[in-house]
């Protein structure tokens, strides 16, 4: 059997369809992009993602959340949390998100994604303006206090190895499109900031705002 990475890519051709991303944007009356939420566990990624999705859905925007825990049930269930596995996890997610953005979906990704290099590799899959890195800045102290899933407690007890912020690093974004201090701002304010950014960049337009 030939290993997948040994297969000759030259034998595989890209089939272009007759409907392009821009046709889908016209049909939807909004553009697509990837909103990439990054931050420590308990910084608020899932909470912000589902509230942003709810708001956009209410405005008739085609939107979908890719969430860390969900992806690890299926797409990446063979992977753990070593740096290599985290890279591979994010590579897969990046490719899935790219297909979703091609399909015209305003995609929201909620992943710790602790390494700069992995986030950059996802960014490189997208055109400028299509990848929106959102850093949910929240101190480890506050995240540990919140600990909604009890992960920090377990990590401190040595029950979860390679836990970001405790026994594995988190590399802060250097130039994120948006940085939000989710340690001391309400969820609604965080969602509103991302929404305003999408409006300012004309990804969604003013006619939708008037229907809020
Ligand atoms: P993550 O997905 O980053 O692990 P979660 O969204 O699961 O984090 O948990 C974050 C917790 O912090 C939730 O209990 C949420 O209600 C709370 N929280 C408080 N303020 C905020 C905020 N501004 N943004 C997001 N979550 C917040």
Q: Gap between N and C termini, in Å?
A: 56 Å
Based on CA atoms alone, the radius of gyration comes out at: 18 Å
Number of DSSP strands?
5
List low-pLDDT spans. Answer: none
**Bound ligands:** adenosine-5'-diphosphate
Provide mean pLDDT, rounded: 93
CATH topology: the name is: Rossmann fold
Helix content: 40-55%
Strand/helix succession: HEHEHHEHEHHEHH
Explained architecture:
- There is one protein chain.
- This protein is an alpha/beta fold.
- The model has no long low-confidence stretch (mean pLDDT 93).
- It has a single domain, classed as P-loop containing nucleotide triphosphate hydrolases (Rossmann fold), CATH 3.40.50.
- It has a five-stranded parallel beta sheet, sandwiched between helices.
- 40% of the residues lie in helices and 11% in strands.
Short structural description:
The chain has 212 residues and is an alpha/beta fold. Helices cover 40% and strands 11% of the residues.
List its traits:
212 residues; alpha/beta; Rossmann fold; five-stranded parallel sheet; 5 strands; 40% helix; 11% strand; globular; binds adenosine-5'-diphosphate
How is the topology of this model organized?
Elements: H1 21-28, E1 34-38, H2 45-58, E2 63-67, H3 68-71, H4 83-102, E3 106-110, H5 116-123, E4 131-136, H6 140-146, H7 151-156, E5 178-180, H8 187-200, H9 206-209
Parallel strand pairs: 1-3, 1-4, 2-3, 4-5
The structure holds adenosine-5'-diphosphate.
Adenosine-5'-diphosphate binds near residues 41, 146, 148, 185 and 187.
């Amino acid at each position: 059997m030939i290993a997948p990475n040994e297969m000759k890519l030259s034998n595989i051709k890209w089939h272009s369809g007759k409907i392009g991303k821009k046709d889908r944007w016209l049909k939807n009356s909004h553009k697509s992009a990837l909103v990439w939420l990054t931050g420590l566990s308990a910084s608020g990624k899932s909470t912000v993602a589902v509230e942003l999705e709810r708001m956009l859905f209410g405005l008739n925007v085609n939107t979908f959340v890719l969430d860390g825990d969900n992806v690890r049930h299926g797409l990446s269930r063979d992977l753990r949390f070593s740096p290599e596995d985290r890279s591979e996890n994010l590579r897969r997610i990046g490719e899935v998100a790219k297909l979703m953005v091609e399909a015209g979906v305003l995609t929201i990704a909620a992943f710790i994604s602790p390494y700069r290099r992995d986030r950059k590799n996802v960014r490189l899959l997208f055109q400028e303006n299509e990848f929106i890195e959102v850093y949910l800045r929240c101190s480890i102290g506050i995240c540990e206090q919140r600990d909604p899933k009890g992960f920090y407690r377990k990590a401190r007890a040595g029950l979860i190895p390679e836990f970001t912020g405790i026994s594995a690093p988190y590399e802060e974004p250097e130039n994120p499109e948006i940085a939000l201090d989710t340690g001391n701002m309400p969820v609604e304010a965080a969602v509103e900031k991302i929404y305003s950014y999408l409006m300012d960049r004309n990804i969604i337009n003013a006619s939708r705002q008037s229907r809020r």
